[in-house]
Write a structure and sequence with these properties.
three-stranded antiparallel sheet; 8 helices; 6 strands; 234 residues; alpha+beta; elongated; 42% helix
């Protein structure tokens, strides 16, 4: 009875949001759109018509996506093991056979027998499970690349998201180390301290035509991993 009485007001609120979204959609610009970009953009346009604070739609949408991805991560023993594997490294390369042996150290324990039925027992099964988990891992900031098939299985490269390692900026003086903060290197909230990551060092030999010294990209893996752990602790 209560719902029946509220139906006209609920419909009116939905129509207010719809009309506001249609009116504001042409002028609505959203940076870093998530998946289902058109839906997300319309949701942002309709926020005020639904009585929501600006930014609340994307915050709720991203929180829901993260929760769904966390469930998928927990349901996939392969994805969970990969996430743990990449906790202390920036990149891993090898074959599916090598990866199977490496992940065996992180094999989950389940049931009275301690055996996880979903755990792959061959490199082929591992590759299949890893391909099913690529979307889930991508949401965690981990990219997986598959290469050629060899004697020990398929060549696999696993690394943290590429945008976490920006190109080194131009240097100011010969031999000077340049540092730059990005979203991945900003200080974590609370007591966690995040240090700058060294991205490049100036080459001491200038070009013959007098151009600026060449900057050779470098990557401080240890600093990157410290920053990654600090970010996950937020």
């Amino acid at each position: 009875a209560a719902f029946t009485a509220l139906r006209p007001r609920i419909l009116g609120a939905l129509l207010d949001g719809l009309s506001t979204g249609l009116r504001k959609l042409p002028e609505t610009q959203v940076k870093n759109l998530p998946r289902m970009a058109d839906f997300a953009r319309f949701g942002v346009a309709a926020e005020t018509g639904l009585g929501l604070e600006p930014g609340s739609f994307l915050a709720a949408y991203r929180a829901n996506r993260k929760a769904a991805n966390d469930v998928a991560l927990e349901a996939s023993p392969v994805a969970s093991a990969i996430d743990k594997l990449m906790d202390d490294r920036y990149i891993w390369t090898g074959t599916s056979g090598d990866l199977l042996a490496e992940l065996a150290k992180r094999r989950p324990i389940a049931g009275a027998t301690g055996v996880c039925r979903e755990w792959p027992v061959t490199s082929r099964k591992l590759t299949e499970g890893l391909k099913r988990s690529t979307t889930c891992l991508r949401q965690m900031g981990i990219d997986v690349e598959f290469g050629d098939h060899g004697r020990r299985g398929v060549a696999i490269t696993i690394r943290h998201r590429a945008e976490a390692a920006p190109v080194a900026p131009a240097a100011k003086a010969d031999g000077e180390v340049e540092q730059e903060k990005t979203e991945e290197t900003e200080a974590a909230e609370g007591s966690a301290t995040v240090e700058p990551v060294v991205w490049g060092v100036v080459d001491s030999v200038a070009s013959v035509d007098g151009a600026e010294p060449e900057v050779k990209p470098e990557f401080d893996e240890a600093a990157f991993l410290r920053n990654l752990r600090a970010k996950r602790m937020r």
